[in-house]
Amino acid sequence: MNDYLALIPRPQQLIEAEGVFNLTAATRIVLDNHAEAEMGELLAEYVHAAAGLQLEVTSAETAGAIVLEQTGRDEPDANGFRDEHYELVVEKTQVRLTAPTSYGLARAIQTLRQLLARQEGAVLPCVRIIDEPRFRWRGMMMDVARHFFTVEEVCRFIDLIALHRFNRLHLHLTDDQGWRVEIRRYPKLTEVGSLRPCTLIGHEGKRPREYDSQPYGGFFTQDDIRRFVEYARRRRIELVPEIDMPGHMQAAIAAYPELGCLDATIRPRCHWGISQHILNVEPATVQFMQHVLEEVMELFPGRYIHVGGDEALKYEWAESRSVQARMLKLGLSHEDQLQAWFINQMAETITAHGRTLVGWDEILEGGKLPPSAVVMSWRGEKGGIEAAHHGNDVVMAPGSHVYFDHYQAEPTAEEPLAIGGLSTLGHVYSYEPIPSALPAEERHHVLGSQGQLWAEYIPSMKQLEYMAFPRACALAEVLWLRKEERNFGDFRQRLAVHRRQLDALNVNARPCR
Ligand code: TNX
Q1: Catalytically active residues, by annotation
Q2: What pTM value is reported for the model?
Q3: For residue 372, with 0-12 CB atoms within 10 Å meaning exposed, 13-18 middle and 19 or more buried, which class applies?
Q4: Mutate-to-test residue for ligand 1 from 142, 245, 311, 449, highest number of ligand atoms within 8 A of CB
Q5: Tens digit of pLDDT for each residue in 190-216?
Q6: Across 118-130, average pLDDT
Q7: Which end of the chain has fewer CB within 10 Å, C or N?
Q8: Ligand 1 pocket: which of 141, 175, 310 to mutate (most atoms <8 Å of CB)?
């Protein structure tokens, strides 16, 4: 195989041709039709990083140029998705990237970036690529709550997933162990909630538990958030913010005890697992969370707003007089119904802002799901199938295949400490996001899939990269091609070449041994 063909994900159609296009300092990037200057500048940055050339971006017709042509406007479809189709034609005398939207152009630019990295010097091989993704939701999830990552690290990860033509990053911004997003109206969320007094040493299952004595904290100011929102926007990556509720809220309750069910002082949690502390459902608490979501929607322009909903232990609700009184008043007989009621309150705020609620598959329990809600199926495929039956869209994120916090190779004892489980590269590659049990007429509800990087055992960017790569490369291809178009042997050969680019970018990918 020619190295330049070693693209990941593999394009739908690739036709080889003779010869090369040579880039020189005189090569221009020409904007044609609706192509925006910022797309040209993005391409120029990548060319500079890879080949050291500083290319000028211009709208003046020029011979021997790299032409970016956008043939239409960036209109979203009914689900808020943009067309990502593109064509990339390299001839000896000209390079042309054509797409109906800037989203397609952004994907074309990443393919060009991969082509360039596979050559010696500033050269592109002559080729014609006609390409578009199979799925519209191609994501990764980063947990910045259990361990915090800086703006620069979030940006770096955005750029790395962009390289693989993913189109979204889900940010798990809050959890029991830390609240990581500044909310102007409620400053204690970060003043108190972002700082835990200590952190568990070793694995959650180990007894007795041992802790360090090091306060651990960090959060994004709203200016920080605007920085990575802009960074992602330029690459046409949509950020999906998650505020996890009504469980996984210990850090918020530590900051504002009136949100909780107990009359006690608590701190953000120092170990992993699931906290029993849960939001009460007083009107003031519902309103508090709606205010939080309003600020989050101000910051994150994307269509999808995630409210978690997972693993909400209901013991405190069962034991609280005021919660029980409230259930009676609402005519609810079971705590699961109360959770469904609560999620629906959040859905009202989110839909009132023209956005779409996303939640983990527990939002299916206890009552009527908001009709427009998107369900993330994590406890296997079951939740996804059920949601699609109801007519809701789903994102498949099953722990069986796309939990990148699981070990990726055996013997696991020789791997850095992880939560458990085993999802090898081949296992990820074999994943098919459309459950076979789903009737044909419901398949369009599967928007796609995403990989989860829960960060209990991911304390650093180096470790995050180790867990993400190369498995994210496999997932990128799973989401780009139909199952019958995928071939693991072929993928592994391309990966061997692609690793040189990851190495050049200093990515701490796990080596294949
Ligand atoms: C379950 S997946 C969780 C997370 C943990 C993860 C560890 C989900 C919706 N909730 O809180 O980090 O397991 O694998």
Answers
A1: 175, 248, 311
A2: 0.98
A3: middle
A4: 311
A5: 999 999 999 999 999 999 999 999 999
A6: 95
A7: C
A8: 310
